[in-house]
Every structure is written in C-alpha cells, then in structure tokens.
Amino acid sequence: MRKTVFIVLWAMTLAVAGVLLWRTTGTAAAASARDTLPHGAASAPSGGSPAPAPSAKDLFNLSPFEPLPLDVPLDGRKVALGERLFRETRLSEDGTISCASCHDLANGGDDGRKVSKGVGGASGTMNSPTVFNGAYNFRQFWDGRAATLEEQINGPLCHPAEMGSSWPDALAMLGKDAAYSKSFEETYADGITADNLRDAIATFERSLITPNARFDRFLRGEKDVLTADEQEGYRLFTEIGCVTCHQGMNIGGNMFQVLGRMGNYFDDRGDIQPSDLGRFNVTGDERDKYKFKVPSLRNVELTAPYLHDGSAATLEQAVETMARYQIGQPLHPDELEHLVAFLKTLTGESARRP
Q1: Catalytic pick among 88, 93, 162, 230
Q2: Are 39 and 89 in a shared domain?
Q3: Do 169 and 121 belong together in one domain?
Q4: Is residue 247 part of a domain?
Q5: Which of 206, 224, 258 represents a domain boundary (last residue)?
Q6: Averaged over 216-227, what is the pLDDT?
Q7: Which of 4, 219, 231, 251 has the fewest C-beta atoms under 10 angstroms from its C-beta?
Q8: pLDDT digits (tens, 9 = 90+) for 96-150
Q9: CATH of the domain at 137
C-alpha cells in the first residue's frame, strides 16, 4: 500500500516537472508553480522551438537527488572578509552577538537551541536553521521572506531580538576600524557600503558547503559506501514518500509545504503562535497558512532540535513526526532505525569547522 501511494505521488511530481521542463516559462502561473514544486523544475529552453515533452520512461529515469559540488570557485578576498564579518560581534547593538552566535560552524551551522538568543538575552520565535549549504536553498528563512543570501542579511542585523543594530551604526563601526577600512578598499572599489557588507558575508556563506557525504559518494557510483541498513533506509525514504518533499541537491530547501498534510500538527501541539502561520506572514494568502520552506536534510544529525518550533529534540522524534503528519504512515521501530541510519549518511565534510 505504501509503495503504491509513493509511486502515485512521485509519478505526479515527475509528470508536472516534465511538463514544466517542456513548456516555456514567464507567465504568472509558472511563477506561482515554482513556489510549490521543486525549485529548478521549471527551467525554460534558451530559444527556438520548444523541446518535445519527455516520455514517461524518461521521467522515471530522472534521479531526484544530486551530489553537492566538490568545490565552488569564489573570490578569496571576499570570502576572507565575509568570514571576519560573520564572526564580528561589534555589528550588534551591544557587541555580544554575531552571525556565528546562531550559526555555530563547529556544530552543524546552527546553535542547538529550540529558539535562538539575541541581544540582551532576547528570545527569537523560530529554530535557527543551519547556514551550511544555504546557497542551495531556493529562498531563505523558514517562511521564505528573503529571496537571496544578501537579502537575508538585512533581517538579523536590524531585528531587535537578534543583533538589534542598524545599517548606519554598523557602517559607522566598520569605518572607524582601520583594518576593516583597508580590507574593504582592497576588495571593493567603493569601499565600505551596505551592499558590499552584504556581498562579503553572502560570499562567505556560499563557501560553506559540505561536500562528499557518504550519500554523495554513493550517488557518484561508490555503491558499497553505504551499509545494508543505510541502503534499506534509503529505499524506505524513497518508497514511503519522504522524497516527495526532500530531493534535489540539498535534499530539501527547494519548495514550500504545509506542516500537517496528513494530520493537524498544530491542533495536536496546541498554543499556536504567530510564527506558526509560516508563509502566510509574508504573503497574507490564506492558502499559505502553516506553510514553510522544506528544510534541507544535509548534516541533519548535527542540527537538533528540529522543526521550525524546535519541538523535536531528537532525529528519531523528527522522523516520527514527519511520518505521522506529512506522510500519514506510522513507522515500525526497525523502519525508524533504518531511516535514521540513512539520514546520517548525509553528513558531509567540513560540517564541523573550528
């Protein structure tokens, strides 16, 4: 039964993706579709006549996964400057909080808290997502309110419960620092500006990839790199339907989805907060209530607690919650064990940095 359900779901996903690959884009309808389908599925031909629609056989030969690149070419000066700024506590109002405070590169790229702490001990409203591989998310934040890494930087810097600063204050602090002034002048023709600060930090964040996970090696052809239990977990992951939302290069991070497709997560949990409304807080569209960006599962063993509200303390709890509310399938203990074993193969190199 579960296999039949998955085949139907996956066939529908591939069929729609195939049509979008075939059709040219640019209409409002296509733009809307990209919000709910895997990001990148709606690419258009570069010109000329549309390509013929892919056959059913071609669709079922498409792989839902792609390994991370082993290296990303970036401007080394921007990366180095961006890392200094990423760790700079003086960008915050009271000099205590930096980007690294909520995104600890030594421990999976998040802070291990249910919700993050900001200036003056203020509590945030959502669980901090990992910064690793963030460049491969189609939008930033749980509610997708930022389209790019550069745009994302505006939020924490100025939020009163995060860094509590302002652009004038941040730029003034940098301008008084001779070392920063020199680095900006050497890296950017116009020196210290808000755009250049955003660009430097975003460039550093684009360097935060964690390639060569054992699953990536498996995808590249090393079929013996996964144990039998891990391969069974991979089979379950695809068969029961996890892959419907978690696929692509980031194994997630490329679409929005309602939390509670197969059961009312929020009624069962109770105490609904404004942050639980998710994408609705950005669009005001009733259809976007309780809808969130699907998180990447890369390095997921390192990023507890889980979900936007940090309510799942362990990876096992997170998997059981998703199976219940997103797939509608209870898991046997051995199935849970195999799925967790597979998820741990998604931990890549450099997922723990000093």
Answers
A1: 162
A2: no
A3: yes
A4: no
A5: 206
A6: 96
A7: 4
A8: 999 999 999 999 999 999 999 999 999 999 999 999 999 999 999 999 999 999 9
A9: 1.10.760.10
Nearest to 262 by CA among 322, 311, 336, 333: 322
Q: pLDDT tens across 257-290, in order?
A: 999 999 999 999 999 999 999 999 999 999 999 9
Q: How many residues are listed for the chain in this entry?
A: 354
